[in-house]
Amino acid sequence: MKLYTKRWHVLLAVGLLFCLSGKVNAQYDAMFTQYMFNEMFINPAYAGSKEAMSVTALHRQQWLNFPGRPVTTSFSLHGPLMEQKMGLGLSVLNEKIGVLNRNLIYADYAYRIKTSAKGRLAFGVMAGIHNQVNRFADLKTTDIGDVQVSQNSPSTLAPNFGTGIYFNTDKLYAGFSVPRMIDDRTTFDAKGNAVQNINVDPSRFHYYLTLGYVFSAGESVKIKPQAMVKAVQNAPFQYDVNVNVLIVDRIWAGLGYRSNSSAIGLLGAQITPQLMASYSYDYGLNSIQKYSQGSHELAISYLFAFKGRKVISPRYF
Known about the structure:
Elements: H1 8-19, E1 23-24, E2 53-61, E3 71-81, E4 86-97, E5 100-114, E6 120-134, E7 156-168, E8 172-178, E9 183-188, E10 194-199, E11 207-213, E12 215-216, E13 221-231, E14 238-247, E15 251-258, E16 262-270, E17 275-284, E18 295-304, E19 306-307, E20 310-311
Antiparallel strand pairs: 1-9, 2-3, 2-18, 3-4, 4-5, 5-6, 6-7, 7-8, 8-11, 9-10, 11-13, 12-13, 13-14, 14-15, 15-16, 16-17, 17-18, 19-20
């Protein structure tokens, strides 16, 4: 079988690995470099932590120029209720990998307890729906006699839920979560029909631990180290660490490292007291970098942070 471009074999390697090997495992989590600005997607207890309604959009192009690469877009909205005793949120994500297209939507709830003058401990739950379809019709053939697949796989729906805890002050945060607790794998029988399997399988849970702190290094400079550890059974721990330098609460830049994967550069700007934009670049430290131009990620956040006519003090997480 020949395909329209020489690189389509890579698309098959990525896409069909998920879709035609007999199992499609939808129980995996999208990767983000700027997880600190997208924590709603991994921890429902984060809802309401900014003490005002917040909107964040994030777009990631992974392994640029690599056919069939992951392309991920997420949107989150959350805010406090009942004098900051509760938080509500909404998270939406779309991800494309090869011929696989999936959509996730979650509602988040957090109950927040004031532990000190500046600290709050939150317990959160999230519930949502996963939708998945495999675009087999996108695969094109050119050889005489090759069969062109004309139909996509059936669109599937599956419920999911998760939980987490989150503690934060003005300068510190820590969280632990299990965001997706249902394994909603899709398999294919001998005739190519999709068969959905839905069950709770703790061996497939992804566990997240996040930590961050802000140190003052003078009147106009702050240093913000952060870390995330992700664990799943029968796989090595993966960790992300980064250190950012903030200048006059307006401009920040940093460097990071993802275990056995990437070196990371980050750059951001607090354009107004409410509007923030940031960019990150991942340089691969493995063989895939030979075939791609790294990974790019853009995040934009807006904080509806007015008390009367005054803006709430800057939020660092």
